[in-house]
Amino acid sequence: MEFSNSLIHWYLQNKRDLPWRNTTNPYWIWLSEIMLQQTRVAQGLPYFLSFTEAFPTVFDLANADEEQVLKLWQGLGYYSRARNLHTTAKHIAFELNGEFPSTYKDLLQLKGVGEYTAAAIASFSFDEPVAVLDGNVFRVLSRFYNVESDISLPKTKTEFQQLAQEVLDKNNPALFNQAIMEFGALQCVPKNPDCETCVLNSSCAGLQFKKVNKLPVKTKKTKVTPRFLNYLILKDSNANFIIQKREGKGIWENLYEFPVFETESQLSENEIIKEVSNMEFFNLKPIDVVSLHEDVILHKLSHQHLNIRFFEVQFDSKLPDSKPITEIEKLPFPIVIHNFIATNYCNSL
After folding, report:
1. Which Pfam families match (predicted)?
2. Which of 2, 33, 275, 327 is catalytic?
3. Is 33 a catalytic residue?
């Protein structure tokens, strides 16, 4: 009880004033929790404000075009979250009459809602006494109780979930869940936390055994795959461009991009020109092929490192299905391509 009381007392004095904390509206809470997965609050907050302005209710989000949703999400990453968000909004609006499920068990049935998000909505919106378990909670509990179990193993999640449920303040689940997550985000940070000023320092086992910077234990590392993407900027005599929509599973599904071909390794500029000239598309014979970037752009995703190069191919005739930049700028692109367009072709993106 002392643990939970200390956390709540700390939280009431130190919490950040965030819009989703000033409501029990499940739509706002669901939206914020989906956005903050793998995302810092400072990065997610502007997106939350943009979404709630564009889509004040779950009905507004459900009735939006997917491209509009993806455009607003542009730059936030993990785009499957946005697609699942849109799908779930339609389900809630059209099949549940706009009413969110009110229990942890039922919330788990929503697409894109896992155990953590279901627990957050259930406790914050409906005061159900179910503990949240995210990276912050793992860290606080492992340090305070000196738990050395490897959090990369599935069985460890069950162990921590049980511990989180045990220490949960059943009378104030929403307040406690917010408190322990905020404490992990602001006080019990991943590297070099300020333990001298910590309200839990007198009873923190990790501190007593001088293991704070070794906890939580995580041995399994993410395997990162390198990929080499060569984008062709096909520009016609009207300064219009060819773009395409990414389809199928994989990164950036349903976002737009320039035509691209992938190679197993980085090719030289001459090798790229040779590849391009052999493509069936180029019966119109380009005037020139110009490398726009001497350096490869390295774009890091969680499981992939993308080595990206852009090459402009200029035509002296019109290209079928080409689009002006004024149309292109309205479409959702991966942020690395968006930034390239903004830097090289327009000032309005």
Report:
1. HHH, HhH-GPD, NUDIX_4
2. 33
3. yes
